[in-house]
Amino acid sequence: MNKASFEQLLKLAHRRAIDGKGGLAASIAKMCLDARADLTDEELRLTFDILRKLIDKVEVQIRRYIADYLADRRDVPEDLLVFLANDVVNVAYPVLVRSVQISDELMLDVIRSHGRGHQMAITKRPELSARVVDALIDTGDREVLIQVLRSPGANFSADSMAKSVIRSISEEELCEPILNRDGIGAGVAKTMYAWVGAALRAHIETNFDIDGAVLEDAVSVAINRIQEEQGGGVEWADQGGRGHAQRLIGAAESGGESGFQLAIAILAGVSQQEVRAAVNRDGVLSMALACRAFDMSLEQFHGLLERCKGGRVMDDMAQSGELAKVNAFFKALDLSGARLVFSNWLGASSTATKH
Question: Which pTM value belongs to this model?
Answer without folding.
Answer: 0.78
